Amino acid sequence: MIRAYNRSDKIEVIQLFKLNTPQYFDASEEKGFVHYLDHDIEDYFVFESNRQIIGSGGVNLSSKEKSACLSYGMIHPDFQGQGIGRELTHFRINHLRRIPHIEEIVVRTSQHVFKFYEKMGFKIDHIEKDYWAKDFDLYQMKI
Q1: What pLDDT sits at residue 63?
Q2: pLDDT for the residue numbered 65
Q3: By three-state DSSP, how is residue 68 classified?
Q4: Distance (Å, whole) CA 69 – CA 123
Q5: Helix, strand or coil for residue 66?
Q6: Tens digit of pLDDT for each residue in 26-73?
Q7: Of 39, 75, 73, which is closest to residue 58 (Cα–Cα)?
Q8: 66 with 102: CB under 8 angstroms?
Q9: pLDDT at 7 > cutoff 70
Q10: Cα separation of 79 and 93, whole Å?
Q11: End-to-end CA distance of the chain
Q12: Pfam family of this protein, just one (predicted)?
């Protein structure tokens, strides 16, 4: 089940982030994620199974009026490769497509995940070396 994030989910979602570190996130990014949860969320969702949060991801409207961004998508390592990430990503894309003025959807990811988004139809816009942290490059992609 995909549902809206609640503040009471914070500890479980931060644990999900930690479970994806260092494979998909650098430990130095955790502080930014906590700040995002406390101050920058516009729409954030959790994927819940048997009362356990096994995935999460958000969307944010860009400063450009016609653009939006997928934010902090992650899946519990025990559940990766089962289509949950694809389902959560489709959910977020469809959520954004219901907003009439959104013409472009962006994801800012790393070299560790960009192939997943390519399979979802995203195209690389640009790459910036060591953007997130050492050995965590920015892959900005658009659909």
Answers
A1: 65
A2: 74
A3: strand
A4: 14
A5: coil
A6: 999 999 999 999 999 999 999 999 999 999 999 998 766 789 999 999
A7: 73
A8: yes
A9: yes
A10: 21
A11: 25
A12: Acetyltransf_10
- The CATH architecture to which 2-142 belongs is 3-Layer(aba) Sandwich (3.40)
Q: Stretch 69-89: mean pLDDT, rounded?
A: 97
Joined together, the tokens standing for residue 112 give 């560790």
Nearest CA-CA partner of 89 in 115, 66, 55 = 55
Report how far residue 57's alpha carbon sits from residue 91's, in angstroms, rounded to the nearest whole number.
10
- Sheet of 2-4, strands arranged across: 2-4, 43-49, 52-61, 67-75, 104-109, 136-142, 123-133
Q: DSSP labels for 71-137? A: EEEEE-GGGTTSSHHHHHHHHHHHHHHTSTT--EEEEEE-TTTHHHHHHTT-EEEEEEEEEEETTEE
Q: How many residues in total does the chain contain?
A: 143
pLDDT, mean over the chain: 95
Average pLDDT over residues 106-128: 96
Domain boundaries, the chain: 2-142
pLDDT above 70 covers a percentage of the chain that reads: 99
Q: Quote the percentage of the chain above a pLDDT of 90.
A: 93
Residue 71 in tokens: 């934010």
